[in-house]
Amino acid sequence: MPVNVSMNVNGRAISEEVEDRTLLVELLRETLRLTGTHVGCDTSQCGACVVHVDGRSVKACTMLATQAHGADVVTIEGLAEGGKLHPMQEAFRDNHGLQCGFCTPGMVMSALDLVARNPDPTGPEVREWLEGNLCRCTGYHNIVKSILAGASTMRGGS
Amino acid sequence: MYEFNYHRPGTLEAAAAALAAAEDGQVLAGGQTLIPTLKQRLASPSDVVDLGSIAGLDGVRREGESIVVGAMTRHADVASSPEVQAAIPALASLAEGIGDPQVRNCGTIGGSIANADPAADYPAAVVGLGASIRTDRRTIAGDDFFTGLFETALEEGEIIVSVSFPIPRRAAYAKFPNPASRYAIVGVMAAETSGGVRVAVTGAGDRVFRVGAMEAALAGSFSADALAGASVSADGLNEDIHAGADYRAHLVGVMARRAVAAAAG
């Protein structure tokens, strides 16, 4: 039975007919063509699908699209402004925080939730926070470095 | 995922009616267990009733000498609640140790205890702190709530509204987590309450259970030393690729001593 879902995605109001069982990540990728949000494991573990729903990072593969009805959703595509990367994205580039890049959208979205709660995290706090984000390339070291650098820029530091 | 009919009721009464009218209705809370279960086609409810739009089911408040946690309160909100941190820090730290940040941003206390996973953390808090569970029909004592593997005292269509935790004199939760899932291989809540000492173990058996011998030992002296000789039998404990029954029995002693030391310290 099709149901209507309406929400704000990256500041734009959308309204779509979906199946009851459509996942949020399916709505984002397949209907809205926002393919920056990735599906890695599809079992709630890897975090490649992390987006923000009403300001909280969630795994979009583990939420029904209908559960986000009326919500503000932000995906990786919603971060850059006017062609200028968000400081956290810039920090991943500057610090070689990615290799294949598959996990990166989820890493960035997860990192921004951390920084919203804790603007000046320590390295161990970043590592602890990344419990739900898996990277199979980097060994995490440069991801942690990127997040610390991104947080510093966002605080207005150097 | 098999097809189902999705419902988004605005009141508890409407949710109960939707469940009653369904051939095989299923409540959706935070969905962190249910949605993976549906995706794996391990369940095929005819109807899914989402409690997410019902006002008043989430939030934490202090009522006298208890902390009342709404059924739809997410783990992250229990962990960061100033009321919980001040009154029952053991409960805040337990919530902070569930899954990962994204799971904690969605998963709810009501969903966790209704699911009654034998390795979930919240059952140790419900039984270890002597909580009670309020539903849309009645109040159920925490000690009577968990009846078996993924089984609870909830009746067909009964909906959890809140969980009330009496504030203990002191308490702590110690967990040996599965490093991948963060579920408890063994977790122990040890508490000194106005009604006596409680020691509740999750992860080790088919459901959370209390350890009377440890509670008796701690009643004399609430210290890790009082548990020096205490242990539990491995008979009937869980065995899987992560830990055998003997190892789980051993971990119950270790986690109990750590919990008591943390609470007493």
What does this structure look like?
The complex is a heterodimer of chains A (158) and B (265). Chain A has helices at residues 24-31, 87-94, 104-117, 123-129, 141-154; strands spanning 2-9, 12-19, 50-53, 56-59, 72-74. Chain A has 2 domains: 2-78, Roll (Ubiquitin-like (UB roll)); 87-154, [2Fe-2S]-binding domain (DNA polymerase, domain 1). In chain A, β1 and β2 (12-19) form a beta hairpin. In chain A, strands 2-1-5-3-4 form a 5-stranded mixed beta sheet, with helices on both faces. Chain A is α+β, with helices and mostly antiparallel strands. By secondary structure, chain B is of the alpha+beta class. Among the domains of chain B are: 1-53, Uridine Diphospho-n-acetylenolpyruvylglucosamine Reductase, domain 2, CATH 3.30.43; 170-264, Enolase-like, domain 1. Chain B is built from 11 helices and 14 strands. Chain B has helices at 12-21, 34-39, 75-80, 82-87, 89-96, 101-106, 109-115, 122-128, 142-145, 212-220, 245-264; strands at 5-7, 25-28, 47-50, 60-63, 66-70, 132-135, 139-141, 146-148, 151-152, 160-166, 170-177, 184-193, 196-202, 209-210. The mean pLDDT of chain B is 97. Classes of the chains: A alpha+beta (158), B alpha+beta (265).
SSE layout and pairings?
The complex is a heterodimer of chains A (158) and B (265).
Chain A: E1 2-9, E2 12-19, H1 24-31, E3 50-53, E4 56-59, E5 72-74, H2 87-94, H3 104-117, H4 123-129, H5 141-154
Parallel strand pairs in A: 1-5
Antiparallel strand pairs in A: 1-2, 3-4, 3-5
Helix pairs in contact in A: 2-5
Chain B: E1 5-7, H1 12-21, E2 25-28, H2 34-39, E3 47-50, E4 60-63, E5 66-70, H3 75-80, H4 82-87, H5 89-96, H6 101-106, H7 109-115, H8 122-128, E6 132-135, E7 139-141, H9 142-145, E8 146-148, E9 151-152, E10 160-166, E11 170-177, E12 184-193, E13 196-202, E14 209-210, H10 212-220, H11 245-264
Parallel strand pairs in B: 1-3, 2-3
Antiparallel strand pairs in B: 4-5, 5-10, 6-7, 6-10, 8-9, 11-12, 12-13, 13-14
